[in-house]
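Hey, can you fold this one?
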Amino acid sequence: MTPGPDSLTATGALAVVRTALAASLPEPVGLWLAHLAYNRRYSPHTVAAYQRDLQQLVNLADGKPLEQVVNGNIRHYLARLHGQGHGARSLARMLAAWRGFYKWWAPQSAMPTNPAADVRAPKAPRGLPKALSVDQTQALLDAPIMRARTDPASIRDHAMFELFYSSGLRLAELVSLDIDYTQHRNHTSVSWISLTEHEVHVLGKGGKRRSVPIGAQAIAALHRWLDARPQLVSPKATDDDAAALFIGVRGKRISPRVIQAQLARVAQLAGLPMHVHPHVLRHSFASHVLQSAQDLRAVQEMLGHANISTTQLYTRLDFQHLAHAYDAAHPRAGRKS
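Sure. Predicted structure:
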């Protein structure tokens, strides 16, 4: 059965509309943001970023109705932002938001064309995703603080981080996970785990559903967490909180900020020389699987990338790994001719 939208998602969508309208954004912008939250299931963080980008457009239009904005206006707005010091990445992100909004709004407002359709933002060099080495990942997941402590929150954290690395999940995807597929009056699962099948089923960006294997270490950590989880369950839990795989100390579905803070703390205590956020574990998963399997399409499917060019960034990480190995092993690699 394909699950439908749950009530919390609908509530979140309405909250987006109210926030947009309270910020003096035009009603079509609020409706588009709600469409992204409710129909496309974009994360609150992503929707908030789009809201800020559309606020820039409204400010630049300076009272001109958005349906009267034309191609020349869009080019002028970008030039003004560039002159104010906005970088290529920032401009490209804003232009993508404007283009997406008009792609949705132009047909409804009888606009002849999407005014942002053929406008190009300045190109920026595409940086490599940050990934841990295999040894660094092992040091994080096997850190004494992860293994020695037996309180429910520590057991939960270990399970979360093992699952991040095992299956390459996004932060929002992990937060949305349920213990199993459930359907109640006030909650229908959008993402869940299946320990018997050793799989995690998630609804990712753009409403794209995928299933990813869960490794043995993550399975073992999840079993330990599920044994400890009842200690944090609240007797007044909502249907959503009762179904959630990972919950906080108050028994509610865990917050993304809690996950980020806990991972950064554990990484620091493990002695890693860098700030570690959840997406670093996703990048590490992709890089390490690609190094071993050399199967770009499989990694694309597991990550849920719509475009394989995004996945191809990890081949550059793989080449870096090979280059370091070459420099360390080849007898003449470091010698000048």
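Residues 1-10, 317-323 have pLDDT under 50 and may be disordered. Let me know if you want another pass with a different chain boundary.
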